[in-house]
């Protein structure tokens, strides 16, 4: 695997917007995407011995590791040059505090942003970046 896989909540408006942000700021096509609810998303989690019951966590799967929550966001930020200084600033905060804030937001994301009722129209090129299409 030469690319990095982002597994996200496919029903969450905020998560959908975050994926669109990464797509728009990933000119090297480093990332591939799959929703946690998709068969391929479940298969990837199962292969990494991760429970498929938890949908409030973002995962970044690389050759070496599985990153979750705030660590996943920081690692994704490393690959988006102009945002990396901001993501790195998060890294100086203790992981327990970062993940507490992540979990707090994740529990309220549907209330703040709602559930997805429409998707971005994907070009053939973008469809290749989604593992579950």
From TrEMBL:
Q: Which GO terms describe its molecular function?
A: protein-disulfide reductase activity
Protein origin, superkingdom: Bacteria
Write down the InterPro entries for this protein, in alphabetical order.
DCC1-like, DCC_oxidoreductase
Protein name, entry field: Predicted thiol-disulfide oxidoreductase YuxK, DCC family
State the organism named in the record: Hydrobacter penzbergensis
């Amino acid at each position: 695997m030469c690319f990095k896989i982002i597994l996200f909540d496919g029903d969450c408006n905020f998560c959908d917007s975050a994926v669109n942000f990464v797509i728009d700021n990933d000119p090297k096509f480093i990332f591939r995407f799959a929703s946690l609810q998709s068969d391929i998303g479940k298969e990837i989690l199962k292969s990494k011995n991760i429970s498929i019951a938890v949908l409030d966590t973002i995962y970044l799967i690389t050759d070496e590791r599985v990153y979750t929550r705030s660590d996943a966001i920081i690692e994704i930020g490393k690959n988006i040059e102009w945002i990396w200084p901001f993501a790195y600033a998060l890294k100086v905060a203790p992981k327990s505090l970062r993940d507490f804030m992540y979990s707090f937001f994740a529990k309220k994301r549907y209330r703040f942003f709602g559930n997805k009722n429409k998707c971005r129209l994907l070009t053939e090129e973008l469809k290749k970046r989604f593992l579950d299409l």
